[in-house]
Amino acid sequence: MKRAETDGVHAKILAAALRTWTTADNDPEPPVARIEIRYPPAWAFASTSNLTARQQSRLLTFLRDDLAENRPAYSTPERAAAVIKGLLAEAAADGRTRITTADLAEAAPRIGRSRSWIAAHITQLIDSGQLHETRRPDTFRIA
pLDDT tens digits for 32-62? Predict the structure, then answer.
């Protein structure tokens, strides 16, 4: 398919799903909110859906729950380790051969774990040979 043929497909699917959800819900109350769906690159109009207070509340609750579940503060050790592995891969892809504890501490919100957990994980990475200590304190060579 050409780009012109695929423009807005995802937005139109979302609009149809939202329209079906609001219609099937059949809340007799008057609308209190309106969601307008548009699609890039020109942000062309796809659809508008009116929401009642109860529908708006349900939608916001769903979005809050989804966001809370995926917040870095809820990071598991496995997810945090994967984020650090990604940071090391990004650094290597950028041509960097070294990384500092400050680099990783700066990424702590993205990692979602405490600085002490990050320090312990750095020790594990050194023990496994993925990082090597250098003469400079808190600076490690990426293997």
Answer: 999 999 888 888 888 899 999 999 998 888 8
**Three-state secondary-structure class, residue 37:** strand
Backbone angles phi, psi at 33, to 5 degrees: -145, 155
Decide if 125 contacts 131 (C-beta within 8 A): yes
Q: How many CB atoms lie within 10 A of CB 103?
A: 16
Overall pTM surpassing 0.85 (yes/no): no
Q: Where are the domains of the chain?
A: 3-70, 74-142
Amino acid at the residue 70:
N
Using alpha carbons only, what angle is made at residue 81 by residues 61 and 98, rounded to the nearest 5 degrees?
A: 130
Tokens of 141: 């060579």
Asked if residues 83 and 111 have their Cβ atoms less than 8 Å apart, the reply is: yes
CATH class of 74-142: mainly alpha
Strands (E), the chain: 31-39, 44-52, 98-100, 131-133, 139-142
